[in-house]
Amino acid sequence: MTIPEQIIAKIEAYDTIIIHRHVHPDPDAIGSQVGLAEVIRNSFPTKKVYQVGSDTGDLAWLANVQSIDEATYQGALVITTDAANSPRISDDHYQDGAYLIKIDHHPNDDPYGDLNWVLPDASSTSEIIIDIVNDSQGRLQFNDAAARVLYAGMVGDTGRFMFDSTSPHTMNCAAQMMTFDIQHAKINQRMNEITLEQAKLQGYLFDQLQVNQHHVAYLVVSQATQARLHVSAQQVHSIVGTPGRLRGVLTWVTFVEQDDGAYRVHFRSKGPVINELAKQHAGGGHPMASGANAADQAEIEQIIAELSALADAYQAAQ
């Protein structure tokens, strides 16, 4: 029995299914989590299916979470989607079920759970969910609600189908979701929108962004700047990809100060593999897009130096 077949068998076997995703959710985290939940609800109306975790913030228009008590986990199947490592899973109760399945598309550096289905070459975890449903021989069925969020998950994690991870198969999956009543143009428009405050943040980025001789761009967004521009740390994510539009920038990093004074670190790259560097700073992710953490200014400077050395080595090898 293949792993997808085992996943489907477990879904069929359990009456209560609880689905988690990672903290600070992006469209793929929500799309894969809620998309799978909607598929199971549609396919097995008598099952109790819950999507849980922290608030979805600015993505509440896409979907939201449910609150359940600890007793619900007794004898339940728990599935995590798009959560690469256990510290990033939103809500620690994921450990309290009877059986745990991990479905993800990040490198499997933390193979937690009883069953793993991890495909790092997939464009998104939403794409993996679509494949599981398509391979189920009709045991699992899409509906409009599932297709809507799964489509959004693919759009989000492929950068609107611009990233290298976008394959012909990805486009076929997107086309399949578009056959449902999902209003895909409205989804694309909503995902492209930013607030006036975020637009001003874009202006701040271009004014304050530093690009060194190693073709590394970097920006620090302090708590004071967030307050002055009236943006949250989560809203700062809207500018993370912007430095990559600049000609001559090879790799870039954004440091976003959190409430506790530490920094959330967003790595992006056009060539150098940066996820190993992210792992050295309590993070990880994809080869060209990763996240990490920095405790203070000294670690910020260390990361910039390490990223510069990485960029130099990459350019020397070309």
TrEMBL record:
<dbReference type="InterPro" id="IPR003156">
    <property type="entry name" value="DHHA1_dom"/>
</dbReference>
<dbReference type="GO" id="GO:0003676">
    <property type="term" value="F:nucleic acid binding"/>
</dbReference>
<dbReference type="InterPro" id="IPR051319">
    <property type="entry name" value="Oligoribo/pAp-PDE_c-di-AMP_PDE"/>
</dbReference>
<feature type="domain" description="DDH">
    <location>
        <begin position="17"/>
        <end position="154"/>
    </location>
</feature>
<dbReference type="Pfam" id="PF01368">
    <property type="entry name" value="DHH"/>
</dbReference>
<protein>
    <submittedName>
        <fullName>NanoRNase (Oligoribonuclease), 3',5'-bisphosphate nucleotidase</fullName>
        <ecNumber>3.1.-.-</ecNumber>
        <ecNumber>3.1.3.7</ecNumber>
    </submittedName>
</protein>
<dbReference type="InterPro" id="IPR038763">
    <property type="entry name" value="DHH_sf"/>
</dbReference>
<keyword id="KW-0378">Hydrolase</keyword>
<dbReference type="GO" id="GO:0008441">
    <property type="term" value="F:3'(2'),5'-bisphosphate nucleotidase activity"/>
</dbReference>
<dbReference type="InterPro" id="IPR001667">
    <property type="entry name" value="DDH_dom"/>
</dbReference>
<dbReference type="Pfam" id="PF02272">
    <property type="entry name" value="DHHA1"/>
</dbReference>
<feature type="domain" description="DHHA1">
    <location>
        <begin position="228"/>
        <end position="310"/>
    </location>
</feature>
